[in-house]
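User: Can you predict the 3D structure for this chain?
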Amino acid sequence: MTTTTLDKPAAPPAPGPAELAAAHGLTVSGARPTLPRYVRELWGRRHFVTAFATARMAAQYSTEKLGQVWHLATPLLNALVYYFIFGIVMRAGHDVPDYVPFLITGVFVWDFIGSSVNAGTRAIHGNLGLVRALHFPRAGLPIATVLQLFQQLLVTMAALVILLLGFGQTPSPSWLLAVPTLILMAVFCAGCAMIMARIGSRTPDISRLMPFVLRTWMYSSGVMWSIDRMLGNDHLPAWVSMVLKTNPAAVYIDLMRFALIDSFGAHNLPPHVWPIAAGWALLAGVGGFVYFWKAEEEYGRG
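Assistant: Here is the predicted structure, written as structure tokens:
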């Protein structure tokens, strides 16, 4: 007597870990979120970014006897040194009207730009303990660094106004143009800081190279001398003139000078300068943010 057996249907395979995680809404730890979600998360941490920047500002000179006075003393001392070397010894300002306001305005603006780029190189690598301990959008660190420096800049700008008044400058409606200049410059610096933060997280030694790069950038930005008068000489190649004219640091410095210094006059500002300033802010701000976001899952490893 023979019997037939019916084949039982094979049991479905057990779901793997990835399928189980997806079914329960779990994601990989440290995975890069989508760009829109990343923006929302960063906005949700805005109070942390602001508090972190303010705390860093308060702690920066906490061990110094003069404390926060150094926020103002540092650019003033730099301006004094540059005035002695370039204004007196090298006579770079003999054909520049209102050279002292010209110089201190350039020094104060450059101090913010150069410090933002330089500090950005250490924004991630210098906070590895925080990066590895807490989950938050890492872009908050370079942004907080620039926000800290921007708070310092506002203090120095108040001092700059007093100095300009002391050197005979008169308030005018053009002074209001300093506000959009500060905003565009802050966006540009935040983008640069994010770019340098990603580079610095991979290659910390870049911070050793930055003083040389920034010194070269400063000398080519017309902080101590007039780019317009230099370009009046015919010995410069055309491409050098173009680089100097579109140099973002020089553009923001010129905008601030045209806004605040009587002898420049906002009505004399070439019409193409504002689009260039806005373009640099958009390019660095958006491009730097996306560039930083693309490596979000790599920060803190190794």
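The two ends are 71 Å apart (CA to CA). DSSP finds 13 helices and no strands in the chain.
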